[in-house]
Amino acid sequence: MHWIPMLHLAISLLALPWLANRHRDPIRLAAWWLLTALCPPASLLIYLLVGQEPRALPCPQPDSDDSFSLDRLIRSGCGAPRREHNRVELLHNGSNAYAALISALQRARRSVSNSYYIICDDRIGRTVCDILIRRARAGVQVRIIYDAFGSRCLKAQFLKRLRQSGIDIRPYAPVRFPWFTPSAMRRNHRKMVIVDSRLALLGGINLARYYLDGGEQGAWRDEHLAIEGEAALDLQRLFQADWRRAGGNDFTPDTPAMPPSGRSAVQIGWSGRGGSRKLLFDAFLSVILRAEREIRITSPYFMPPVELLQALRCAASGGVRIRVMIPTVSDSRLLDLVAESYIDDLLAAGVELYRYEEGFLHAKFLIVDDRLAAVGTANMDYRSLELNEEVTAFLYDRQLIQRLTHTFERDLKSCHPVSAANWHPQWWRRRTGELLRLGAPLF
């Protein structure tokens, strides 16, 4: 009878690639494989009865009233209204973003609130921190939140220098072995700076030299925003909440007189705690389902939850043109394999897919019908939309959206279109990606 455990193990191992080829949702895949590993005979019978991949549900028809508009959705989840008076600048790469950041920091008079997923002790990190040190010595209140996992390579000496200069810097959600908690998986992925509660910068760019110099993948293509006006107050309020969670003393944000500085309508949405837990997921799902003509998406890690894939399929079947731009290579070979496992799903859904080839595409934005755009820190993947704490600016200014659309069209010139005719990955990459997809909600 010693052969029974070996047979049990063999069935479990053989079932995994077979199930991975039939179930695209990693949650369903994990559940069926666990059942197979626990009891192969019973799982086979149950699978034959109820386990086949369900057919795609009919696409819901979005109602015509405004009861579930994006504005109302964000107000209910975050309490952030649509702000009408802002001046917004698109910062298309690290060079523009760092130039705008340095200029804003040098003009700070009262406070600077910084939140970064990654801060590197390199020439970019040191340059920005040197400016922050000078502003702190000049009497400006400087606060910094860094994610304890994303910035895990920061040395104590780097942090000590900042603290000795009067800067209050705090790690977000330190991971201390062996006292892991469920919140250890929830990282603060925001990248935002708020100066004097009236000027804010946010987007995909951390403090690291590779946003300027490039890396193994080549140049980094990213997107960032500079927002001056009323929307900066909402970002300051968000930072204040994060600051309390990081153990900082509560503070009263600056409330400067805010004369109209522009006419761009902006609404800040974020995922965090409580009612905003899945706000960005719900917001993206809502605008995709309400699209009428065209959707453009750019994301470095495209591993969307199954509901988002279903929404894209629904939009495409309704005649909406959908174009998705992803990198050919990212900064993680593991994530590249997982992302490739979604290509067949996207093509089957009627999505036009493009792979960016001039470096690493790290930009994260969404454009719907030339009337709405979203630029922020959230990737189109499980981690960003269901676990991480993210922030996104929703833009309603048509001229601004048109400029972002021109950026998308320009980036397309650096892309290779992917179709069923030319997408033939090596068998081992396809199978490995399908197996790794089991962990998509964790990556």
Notes on the structure:
It is a single chain. With 443 residues, the protein is an alpha/beta fold. The chain has helices at residues 3-20, 26-38, 40-50, 70-78, 94-106, 123-137, 156-164, 210-213, 231-245, 279-289, 306-317, 333-340, 343-348, 382-387, 398-412, 427-436, and strands spanning 86-91, 111-116, 141-147, 168-172, 192-195, 199-203, 220-221, 224-229, 266-271, 294-298, 321-327, 352-356, 360-361, 365-368, 372-376, 390-395, 415-418. The protein is 40% helix and 19% strand. The strands form 3 sheets. Strands 9-16-15-14-10-11-12-17 form an 8-stranded mixed sheet, sandwiched between helices. Helix 6 links the parallel strand 2 and strand 3 (141-147). Mean pLDDT is 86; it is low at 45-57 and 63-68.
Estimated share of beta-strand residues: 15-25%
Overall number of strands = 17
Quaternary organization: single chain
Overall average pLDDT: 86
Cα radius of gyration in angstroms: 23 Å
Distance between the termini: 40 Å
Q: Order of strands across the widest beta sheet? A: 9-16-15-14-10-11-12-17
**With helices defined by DSSP (H or I, 4 residues minimum), what is the helix count?**
16
Largest sheet geometry: 8 strands, mixed
Using the alpha-carbon principal axes, give the shape. Answer: globular
Give helix % range.
25-40%
Structural class: alpha/beta
Uncertain regions: pLDDT < 50 for 5+ in a row? 45-57, 63-68
